[in-house]
């Protein structure tokens, strides 16, 4: 039995098709937000490449349909950045709930920061939520009652919209001087 050098072994691994495909997919993940833009990247997740076809999960059917119309433009941009050429892109909502890829995505942290600064965001005001207690919510009725009590407490502590008198997150009042619904209604006139 003859031993092969470490360089020879590494070269044979790197030349395997599966290894090259994995490296190509990693390059695609890195350039995805640059190619489609940060807003679209936040609503999409490349899943796999099979036979030159890129599968992309989208957060909703509207995103899948819109991006299907844009796929030729996206293909041209991706092919300019990748060493192997893609032949098509398939957009679907089917694997959006699968978080295995999203935890490694470069734009997940940016999406979280955006939500932290959103004017409609309300901190959990429930005493149970603040203390870290979570009741056992195996039954739908118990889960609904817990949600209802949290929402009631939040709305009780929230300031009122000067226009419609509904409980409103403080961030919305600071930004628009009214709740988001009244602001949208005002913009549509």
TrEMBL record:
Q: Which domain of life is it from?
A: Bacteria
Q: Name one Pfam family in it.
A: DciA
Biased segments, Polar residues type: 107-117
What InterPro entries does this protein's entry cite?
A: DciA-like
Q: Where is this region: Disordered?
A: 107-137
What is the protein name stated in its UniProt record?
Answer: DciA family protein
């Amino acid at each position: 039995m003859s031993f092969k050098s470490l360089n020879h072994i590494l070269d044979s691994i790197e030349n395997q098709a599966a290894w090259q495909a994995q490296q190509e997919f990693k390059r695609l993940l890195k350039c995805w937000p640059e190619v489609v833009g940060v807003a679209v990247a936040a609503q999409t997740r490349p899943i796999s490449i099979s036979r030159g076809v890129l599968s992309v999960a989208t957060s909703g059917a509207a995103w899948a349909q819109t991006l299907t119309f844009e796929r030729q433009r996206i293909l041209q941009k991706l092919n300019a950045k990748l060493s192997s050429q893609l032949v098509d892109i398939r957009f679907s909502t089917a694997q959006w709930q699968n978080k295995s890829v999203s935890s490694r995505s470069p734009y997940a942290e940016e999406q979280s920061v955006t939500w932290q600064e959103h004017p409609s965001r309300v901190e959990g005001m429930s005493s149970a939520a603040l203390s870290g207690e979570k009741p056992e919510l195996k039954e739908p009725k118990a889960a609904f009652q817990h949600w209802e009590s949290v929402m009631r407490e939040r709305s009780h502590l929230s300031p009122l919209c000067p226009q419609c008198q509904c409980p409103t997150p403080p961030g919305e009042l600071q930004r628009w001087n009214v709740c988001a619904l009244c602001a949208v209604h005002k913009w549509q006139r």
